[in-house]
Design goal:
single chain; mainly beta; six-stranded antiparallel sheet; five-stranded antiparallel sheet; 2% helix; 48% strand; globular
Length: 270
């Protein structure tokens, strides 16, 4: 996960958006400062266009990786929790909260096998940009976080997944043939612990027609090994007008066939 191998950036390629690449200075393999992307639009409910720039520090041109990143607007600078796990980044502009003004979305990519993607969302409030969503930090991330996630073998190839933070429980049925090549498979399944990867995919949905987009995050859940895919832990975030930020609305467990087998509502109010 921290090998820094060069792997393709997963599922989101946003460099088709008005991208400008500029070097300061030139003719070096690793640049101290590099403007990776610049977007221009009518932001903050103004009638003139303004720019948003994605800046990389210690940028390696051959891999497009950097040690740290920041977003620059005309008046503000936002360092992006400069974690070494996220080596690549890009951004887009999208109206997320239905106020007819576009938010800044910055995606950050991990270069390991988990294909982790971080997301920051910035919104302009009374002329000032504030962060209204960010994905969980990878610095403290543990794929086998027993403090939160628990997997219990019930016998007969039946499992129970438990998210102790929200008390979501999901009952999973496994096929015996899936583990035929494992010696003492019953004992192995008894020792199974939940392996939950970081967020690897985001969806934006307006589920009730209020023009506010929910953020759906997807985290893959594995069993005895990293290719033993048991399902996906889904978290749905809804913009909360009172708090001015996204909050967890619902969590769910999705089977590999995309069927939701368990869900729990956290935030009842719109």
């Amino acid at each position: 996960m921290n090998s820094m191998n060069i792997l393709p950036i997963p599922f989101i390629t946003l460099l088709a958006f008005s991208t400008i690449t500029q070097e300061l200075p030139v003719n070096k393999e690793i640049e101290p400062i590099w403007m990776v992307q610049q977007l221009s639009d009518y932001l903050c409910h103004t009638d003139t266009k303004s720019d948003v720039k994605l800046i990389a520090h210690h940028y390696q041109k051959s891999t497009k990786f950097a040690k740290s990143w920041e977003v620059r607007t005309e008046r503000q600078v936002f360092p992006l929790n400069n974690e070494r796990w996220y080596a690549a980044a890009d951004m887009e502009l999208k109206d997320m909260i239905g106020d007819h003004a576009k938010e800044i979305l910055v995606y950050r990519y991990h270069v390991g096998s988990s294909y982790a993607v971080g997301l920051h969302v910035f919104s302009c409030k009374t002329g000032k940009w504030v962060e209204i969503f960010h994905s969980p930090s990878l610095i403290q991330y543990d794929p086998r976080d027993t403090e939160r996630f628990e997997m219990t073998y019930l016998g007969g190839y039946q499992l129970q997944f438990h998210d102790k933070l929200t008390d979501l429980k999901a009952h999973l049925s496994l096929s015996k043939e899936r583990y035929m090549d494992i010696e003492n498979r019953e004992e192995s399944l008894k020792r199974l612990r939940a392996w939950v990867d970081p967020v690897s995919h985001y969806e934006f949905r307006d589920s009730n027609g209020d023009h506010q987009k929910e953020i759906h995050t997807h985290q893959h859940v594995y069993g005895l090994w990293h290719t033993d895919h048991l399902g996906t832990f889904v978290t749905i975030y809804k913009f909360d007008q009172k708090h001015g930020a996204y909050r967890i609305k619902e969590v769910a467990f999705q089977e590999p066939n995309k069927k939701i087998c368990s869900r729990k509502v956290i935030l009842d109010s719109p």
